[in-house]
Specification:
The structure is a homodimer. In chain A, about 40% of the residues lie in helices and about 15% in strands. Chain A is an alpha/beta fold and about 450 residues long. In chain A, strands 1-4-5-15-10-11-14 form a 7-stranded mixed sheet, sandwiched between helices. In chain A, strands 8-7-6-9 form a 4-stranded parallel sheet, sandwiched between helices. In chain A, strand 6, helix 6 and strand 7 form a beta-alpha-beta unit. The first copy, chain A, is globular.
Chain lengths: ~450, ~450
Amino acid sequence: MESLRITLEQSEIPTHWYNVVADLPTPPVPPLGADGKPVSAAQLAAIFPAAIIDQEMSAERWIAIPEQVREIYRLWRPSPLIRARRLEEMLGTPARIYYKYEGVSPAGSHKPNTAVAQAFYNQQAGIKRITTETGAGQWGCSMAFAGQMFGLEVRVYMVKVSFQQKPFRRSMMQTWGAEVFASPSAMTQTGRDLLASDPDNQGSLGIAISEAVEEAAARADTSYALGSVLNHVALHQTIIGQEAKKQFEKVGDWPDVIFAPCGGGSSFAGIAFPFVAENASGGRHGRPTRLVAVEPSSCPTLTRGAYAYDFGDASGFTPLMKMYTLGHDFMPPGIHAGGLRYHGDSPLVSQLYHEGLIEALAVGQLATFEAGVLFARAEGVIPAPESNHAIRAAIDEALRCKESGEAMTILVNLTGHGHFDMAAYDRYFAGQLEDFEYPAEAIRASLEHLPKVG
Amino acid sequence: MESLRITLEQSEIPTHWYNVVADLPTPPVPPLGADGKPVSAAQLAAIFPAAIIDQEMSAERWIAIPEQVREIYRLWRPSPLIRARRLEEMLGTPARIYYKYEGVSPAGSHKPNTAVAQAFYNQQAGIKRITTETGAGQWGCSMAFAGQMFGLEVRVYMVKVSFQQKPFRRSMMQTWGAEVFASPSAMTQTGRDLLASDPDNQGSLGIAISEAVEEAAARADTSYALGSVLNHVALHQTIIGQEAKKQFEKVGDWPDVIFAPCGGGSSFAGIAFPFVAENASGGRHGRPTRLVAVEPSSCPTLTRGAYAYDFGDASGFTPLMKMYTLGHDFMPPGIHAGGLRYHGDSPLVSQLYHEGLIEALAVGQLATFEAGVLFARAEGVIPAPESNHAIRAAIDEALRCKESGEAMTILVNLTGHGHFDMAAYDRYFAGQLEDFEYPAEAIRASLEHLPKVG
């Protein structure tokens, strides 16, 4: 019997998160405040607990995972690594394709890996309540679930248009006991001001972030939580890549290339960072593993953006971060991979890309859904639209191998299932989806609004 | 580290299905045709392949699971057995509560356990296409997935009102390559006749069954597949209970009582039948395991129906089966546990109940959703409304243990996740759901329409 699903014992869940900062050729530059000076830990303390701030600024290579976090991880981890043998046969490729399947978590994606850790550190710090924002709802669900596990109240500001059009993720958050508000809301000054001038405002992720941060900053018992971009989020996700390494060791294989979807960067960081150190010393088997971030061509941050200091949100509320960005007021079209619609990228992912240690690739929406349907028919799992980006890139690589005859090993981060995205598949089948490539002048225009620094 | 999630190796997937017929005190009575005579294998051959008919009629205790079926099972099996420690703590009960989680399959429920087997036997028999019916879509999805795994075309007749109101399960079937028709459809004589007299007919499961059977009977390359009720379906599901036994042995515990939702009976059969033989010889540890089928009080087949020969479908198209029934023209209200809205029950489950070897319990809709929300908040998993029936009964038992101080072991068959049922949770939160108890005279009236036999 050949085992296509490579599992680990629960005792094999990694004991430490891996911090890629320790293995960067040059130290990361700090985020800057409105005054142009590096943001201090004291400034962050208004919205984050000390343990999270320590991790955000740490250069330690290994950071211990608390037993209470591992206990919750054990509800679904270690996640399986699965050999996509049926997909290989369907493609007729000599390549070996594996996927690390994060859709097995209660919230259905990789997001709980960090949500659980953040909830734990907040509970330990005596925090009673967490505020956060959500677009389509993936992150809000993960935080609602994680907050419930540690007895924290969770308040989610959900972009109003999603609140109205995507009721099911809202119901899921409520099932886990979270309060969900359509943003802009009457709960904050930001929301009230917007509604006063525009009662029909449909909201945006930038507005929702502002509301969540405003509430967290105003209350001592409340913290804010973010689901991507920041260093501590990338750190928590490295459990994915570490497990994958053990699983490959178990079957005596090793990835030549890894593809992960990339929006804010947390799922890419999660699977790829643990291979960066290995690559620095020449790779496990004498050659490095190629690490490829796959983004939508409608929001091509790494492939067509600038490497510069920019705000993390649309309204310029957050500190400035050095990252690849399309400009904080860049408005990507309403593609269905909502999790990848972010103007910037994780500063750590951006630095690795800038220093040539990772690659990036942009793919069109139609090609990603085509890949997702092919994958579902071969493997059974219906992937989230975000994951379809990585699957598209993997299929293209496998087809290149078919031409060349190369028997390489490909790893995909299959970040979540598509159970709440069937409307997008429906639109794909109905021929209602389209591709979108930004004209160069549109990107140039929004990059002109980058804040001036130094 | 205590492990709450009890897993098995893929090599521990059972090699045989268990056939409870071998351990029944009296042999089952046969299904009867329109002429009142037992249905022959030759009659069934119009819509089922020979291997399925053999299993339907077999009295062999163990039937080997083909390696090709086990290969597909390995995509998600063995399913985990999980100790619901957080739920126990929330309830303050000395009882130990475990759940066998079948929501890990690609289709999200236990249904693929039989769909995969049925697809395999049809493919082996040279069948090219399978027709089936679906209400809310759980079974249609499972058959679409399974057909895809063995290269069979799948045509699903989906009750029109569900087709229109529940588009996401339809999209899921299409993603797996199935054709889905709103029933009544123009594809069959049954459908055309109905539409001619009533163009706005919203369909019913009975009509959809008739359409699927009509098409299968008319074409030599086409078989029909059913997702519950029949003996071979119950047989295939026994993999659930067999795995659970191994998992309990692994942790040195054993269930005192098992609760499973019961509509057509396949999920109850799946987890409970493997314990029937054990009970017959006094139980594993000197006392039998109580086996409790939990049904909705709005469709109380076992608890308030008659044990009699009745049609399997509403229109009287199928053979007569001896079973607990509320009468084939009984119309249960539109409760949200669509999988439990069936007027009859598996003949094998019915016989076991009639002979006093299992118990039955009816619970109200509101209490089941209350239980599901409590469970989700404790354990993370959001259960399907069907599963909430078993969870409700388990919580009530655990609360009784709290009163009595008894440290019993409770097992729940958590048959699927609720990702496609969030609209029902929404209605529960909005206070829009209600309980429904049938007046005794309504049940008496529909039982008067039972066919006369012999």
